[in-house]
Amino acid sequence: MKKLEEYVRSIPDFPEEGIIFRDVTSVLQDADGLQLAIDTMQDLIKDLEFDVVAGPESRGFIFGTPLAYINKKPFVLIRKKGKLPCETISIDYELEYGTATIEMHKDSIVPGQKVLIVDDLIATGGTTEAMIKLVEKLGGEVVGVVVLMELAGLKGREKIADYRLDSAICYEGK
Asked: What is the CATH classification number for the domain harbouring 136?
């Protein structure tokens, strides 16, 4: 059986020279790769107690929903501004080139709930930090973050150092 890293396509010099883009679509397009990704992420969180899984669009939905299903937990959407129909809370955060806004329904987290955040990737940690702040603004307690891939060279782990972070694959470079 192949290792999970072998399912990830690495594309050199994208989006700019010197960058190696780690493409998650090659994992998703292979049934064995997808199953291995979900199984590996589940194994990383098997000792974690949580009440709800939250994930950002779109790849957080892809990896978070099966983990919620396996653990018989609800799944909460974190979306780009203007995509949720009910009353929301939002947060603006810095991107490498500008800013972005994400939001959640105000009633998606009950105060005191233990929340697991799931995403495909952590790079600089800006999106992850913003998700944590949103959950906490609603009174939730983030008990962990699990990602398929971590780009350790971009130091996202340092931005969320007070939280548990598990990654199925860790790339040392950028």
From this structure: 3.40.50.2020
